[in-house]
Amino acid sequence: MLENKNQEKTDLESLGEFGLIDHLTQNFSLTQKSTLKGIGDDAAVLDFKGKKTVVSTDLLIEGVHFDLSYMPLKHLGYKAVIVNLSDIYAMNAKATQITVSLAVSNRFSLEALEELYEGIALATKMYAVDLVGGDTTSSTTGMIISITALGEANTNEIVYRGGANANDLLVVTGDLGGSYMGLQVLEREKEVFKVNPNSQPDLEAYSYIVERQLKPEARKDVFELLNQLGVHPTSMIDISDGLSSEILHLCKQSKVGCNLFEDKIPMDPTVISACEEFKMDSTLVALSGGEDYELLFTIDQKEFPKIKGNPNLTVVGHMTAENEGAHLISRNNSKIPLTAQGWNSFAKHN
Amino acid sequence: MLENKNQEKTDLESLGEFGLIDHLTQNFSLTQKSTLKGIGDDAAVLDFKGKKTVVSTDLLIEGVHFDLSYMPLKHLGYKAVIVNLSDIYAMNAKATQITVSLAVSNRFSLEALEELYEGIALATKMYAVDLVGGDTTSSTTGMIISITALGEANTNEIVYRGGANANDLLVVTGDLGGSYMGLQVLEREKEVFKVNPNSQPDLEAYSYIVERQLKPEARKDVFELLNQLGVHPTSMIDISDGLSSEILHLCKQSKVGCNLFEDKIPMDPTVISACEEFKMDSTLVALSGGEDYELLFTIDQKEFPKIKGNPNLTVVGHMTAENEGAHLISRNNSKIPLTAQGWNSFAKHN
User: What does the pLDDT look like over A231-277, one tens digit per residue?
Assistant: First the structure.
């Protein structure tokens, strides 16, 4: 729906591949010292001057990862970038460059792609990364976006998933479950719109969670904050698939167990009220919701004074010996095994 | 057709995303010194030790870039990798790592993806690159492959498109037009198969050109040869879109003109006979065919003795002042302007 809102549309075929890339990328400037050559050759050339190079990539498919009936293209462009940058920050590295490949069917106009690239441009500006390459092609159906993000870090700065130790504190940034509940609201409005296309949705009460879904941010600020505080996590991951799944990744790769305390999981009041409205368990939403793009990390207990009281960081549990397993300690103090598919497994316990 | 040939098929959904990635990548080992961390964290970690990092990316869509009715999945995996490596060699850089993202609809079985990854694995082995990351997801229709390739080079080794000078010699590797004519043969057989599914195509006479289409190689050997010969091209590009289009890229970015000699364009006898059979002009096929993945480069005339007589390298013309434009000098010595769409423009001249 949204991609067709322009009154005057320009056919993509009238530009050709090279004209299209030139047009869409003309307003992108290079700002990173490490970018020697961006778009316009067989490959980009980067200079990390002895630092390590960090690389991550994501593929986003229309109808699987996004729904253009409620996702404005500008937001989609922005979100596609930050999803990838989030992976770079989760390595405790500085994000520096991205490449963007795009496949679109002929139902998209030039003006629609300009909107998408406006969002991409805004993200590159906000996060100070350079667009250095990509590929533009036609698709048989819908839109496909593939982004690769690059970053840099010194060896001793890089944080892997596998470094957590028993007794380390488990810390989460921001709050959880918002993106998932925002999606529930948008899906409900889509159903309403199908029945009555003249309905004007009033989403003001849901603005926080809808924004968490449509325009999430990557925690560049936390990457910088940890640096300022002199906190070096022992392990780190970004929360794209829900807290439960990410904790299990840290446990598996660090060969440790974990106790997660239900009453510590940070949630915005809007998320809790939306859960009540949709008759969903807010803990399950935080555990399995996904797409929050917060960071989850572990620190040695000695580091605790450095983060104590910081409103961006919440201690939600601690790591244990591997043979103790990974558990949620519920509000009524029962010990429930964490599983990657929180919804199914919890159904058995509650 | 080919993706369904297995008798016993395993549903992708039975594995889940993480199980699938683990399964498909279990036989990949890391061999590059520059790979510190491959698959299994938020990002790969690479160490180019002060060398420059070179990055290129490509998106391949079923129905646009490949047709599984005649492209075996193993070949597709192989080709998807070498298409990207070709861009790295075109920078005169050593290819070192790739990431592979894959989206597939539920019509693909696990066994089909195993075939695809066999081809990817073979390419990583033949070209000595490490698979260090990627993303695996479902698609609403068909298969989508997005590959990013990384490489390394010292500053003085990197060759851009923009360094050619007037009077430089224009050199092409291997021979041209084979991939395009192989495609014509395969398309014809597909039509025959539609009419008579029991027909057994005899492609032996076309084996060279069919292999050029289905299993092309990237010119790692030429990258190494130039290094051994001490030849440093002034500009370079890989031939993915046809000779004509690539020459125009070099001319535009180097601000030079070019004279290309029709009688010098290297073509395999099989290509010429296939052109006769299909009633196509072989020069036009070489100029506009594409997908040969040969290298096109310019060298100072002083370098000529170093490459003289080498069977892999053919001097096809020379660069001129920019205001002289880019031309094909035909066999009957007429001067025809080169254009990116050779077929259309040539129709007017011949």
Answer: 999 999 999 989 999 999 999 999 999 999 999 999 999 999 999 99
Please name the residues in contact with B190: beta carbons below 8 A apart, sequence gap of 6 or more: B67, B69, B70
Higher pLDDT, B23 or A132: A132
Q: Which residue of A has its CA nearest to B49?
A: A50
Contact A57 B137 (CB under 8 A): no
Interchain proximity A53–B46, CB inside 8 Å: yes
Name every chain A residue with its beta carbon within 8 A of the beta carbon of B90: 42-43
Contact A105, A142 (CB under 8 A): yes
* CB of A80 less than 8 A from some CB of B: no
> Bridge-partner residues for A100, per DSSP?
A134, A147
Which two structure tokens, joined as six digits, stand for B248?
């125009």
Element holding B316 (H helix, E strand): strand B313-320
Among B49, B59, B91, beta carbon nearest to A137: B59
Q: What is the CA radius of gyration of chain B?
A: 21
Interface test with B, best of A146, A235, A241, A245 (most B CBs within 10 A): A146
The CATH number assigned to the domain with range A169-345 reads 3.90.650.10
Could you name the CATH architecture of B169-343? Answer: Alpha-Beta Complex (3.90)
CATH code of domain B2-157: 3.30.1330.10
Which residues are A298's β-sheet partners? A170, A235
A-B interface: how many C-beta pairs under 8 angstroms? 183
Reported as a single tens digit per residue, the pLDDT across B44-69 is 999 999 999 999 999 999 999 999 99
* In chain A, % of residues over pLDDT 70: 94
Contact of B122 with chain A, judged by CB distance below 8 Å, is answered with no
DSSP code at position A11: -
Predicted TM-score (pTM) of the model is 0.92
User: On the CB side of A45, how many CA atoms lie within 13 Å of its CA?
Assistant: 23
Q: Does B254 touch chain A (CB under 8 A)?
A: no
Contact between B220 and B86 under an 8 Å Cβ cutoff? The reply is: no
CA B60 to chain A, closest CA, distance in angstroms equals 8
CB distance from A284 to chain B under 8 Å? Answer: no
The rounded mean pLDDT for chain B is 91
Distance from the B301 Cα atom to the nearest Cα atom in chain A, whole angstroms: 24
Q: Which residue of B has its CA nearest to A148?
A: B148
pLDDT at res. B183: 95
> Is B64 within 8 Å of chain A by CB?
yes
* pLDDT reading at B346 higher than 70: no
Tell me which chain B residue has its CA closest to the CA of residue A17: B241
Q: What is the pLDDT of residue A345?
A: 30
pLDDT of residue A185: 95
Would you place residue A172 in the very low, low, confident or very high pLDDT band (cuts 50, 70, 90)? very high
Rg (CA), chain A: 21
CB atoms within 10 A of CB B64: 16
Closest CB to B43 among A50, A88, A133: A88
Residues 6 or more apart whose Cβ sits within 8 Å of residue B1: B68, B69
Q: Where are the domains of chain A?
A: 2-156, 169-345
Report the distance separating Cα A318 and Cα A298, nearest Å.
8
Whole-angstrom distance, CA of residue A49 vs CA of residue A154: 10
- Closest chain B C-alpha to A271 CA, distance in angstroms: 27
- Domain covering A2-156 in this structure, CATH number: 3.30.1330.10
Interchain CB contact of B224 with A (< 8 Å): no
B84 touches chain A (CB under 8 A): no
Residue ranges with strand state E in A5-51: 35-37, 44-46
Instruction: Judge contact between A42 and B91, C-beta under 8 A.
Output: yes
Which residue of B40, B133, B162 is in closest CB contact with A55? Answer: B133
Q: Does the beta carbon of B22 lie under 8 angstroms from any beta carbon of chain A?
A: no
